[in-house]
């Protein structure tokens, strides 16, 4: 569980926020309504956009955002969960990161 994460509808689509900053968009474009967009770790961004499962998102790409289709065959849900957490970590406040990394946080999220 990501501390203080909330779902907020924006532009007619779900967004997920670390309090206010957005870390995940769902269905960010009309062309790909079953997609998810996350902010990547800048050091991992290039490798992700070279992976056929991911694509650079117009208007987001230069800021290290990638998208992937949720209905694609062979979606790696574990990798997607890791990318969502990484995205959260890119925008979260220090107190949110401290709560996420605190001892016992993994057990509380089960």
Instruction: Give helix % range.
Output: 25-40%
Structural class: alpha+beta
The biggest beta sheet, please?
A: 6 strands, antiparallel
What gross morphology would you assign?
globular
CATH architecture: Alpha-Beta Complex
CATH C-level category: Alpha Beta
Distance between the termini: 8 Å
Quaternary structure: single chain
Radius of gyration: 14 Å
Which whole number gives the mean pLDDT?
89
Topology as a string of helices (H) and strands (E): EEEEHEEHHH
Per the CATH scheme, the topology name is Aspartate Aminotransferase, domain 1
Number of strands: 6
The residue ranges in which pLDDT falls below 50 over 5 or more consecutive positions are none
**What percentage of amino acids are in beta strands?**
25-35%
Number of helices: 4
Count of the separate structural domains: 1
Q: Numbering strands along the chain, what is their spatial order in the largest sheet? A: 1-2-3-4-6-5
